[in-house]
Amino acid sequence: MAQPFSLPDFYVPYPARLNPHVEAARTHTRQWARGMGMLEGSGIWEEKDLEAHDYALLCAYTHPDCSAEALSLVTDWYVWVFFFDDHFLELFKRTPDREGAKRYLDRLPAFMPMERGAATPEPENPVEAGLADLWTRTVPAMSDAWRARFAESTENLLNESMWELSNINEGRIANPVEYIEMRRKVGGAPWSAGLVEYAAGA
User: The domain that contains 164 carries what CATH number?
Assistant: First the structure.
C-alpha cells in the first residue's frame, strides 16, 4: 500500500546491526519460557505466541555486540516482562480483582533480594518462577548500586499495572498531564537501560 507522503533520506551514523547469536537466543528462550511454565498450560501463551513475538530479534537489534549468553539472558528478561503484562491482564484486569492483584504484586519484590545469596519464597506461578531465575542469573555480575536501581525500575513497571487497574475499576481515564508523569516513571526506559548496562558489561 502506497504511503500518502514521502520520507527524506535520514542521516544514520549508526545503521542497525544484528547480533549473530539471534538463533541461539530464540532456541534458549523458547526452552526457558517452557521451563518456567509460560507456554502450553499457562492459559496465557502457547509456543506460537512466543514465536510470533520474537523477542530474540528485538534484543538482537538492541544489543548487537553482546555475547550469546548475555543476549539469551536479556531476551529472557523481555519475555518475562511481556508475559507478566499478559498474565496480569488475564488474572486481574479482566475480572477486575484489585485485592488479588495487590497480593500478587506484593509478593514479587521478595524475588529480588538485595543481599547476595538471600533465600526467596517458593514460586507460585510462572511470573514468580521467571523472576527468581532471572535475578539469580543476573545480579552476580552487577554492583549493589545497579541491583538497587534495577529492582526499583522493575517494581515501578509492575506497580504501574495496579494504577491501571484502579483506573479501570473507577471508570476513570487519566488526564494527559498525569499520564505523561506516569509514563516517565514506568515507561520501561530505566528498566531497559539497566539491561543495556548488563549487556555492555558497564
Answer: 1.10.600.10
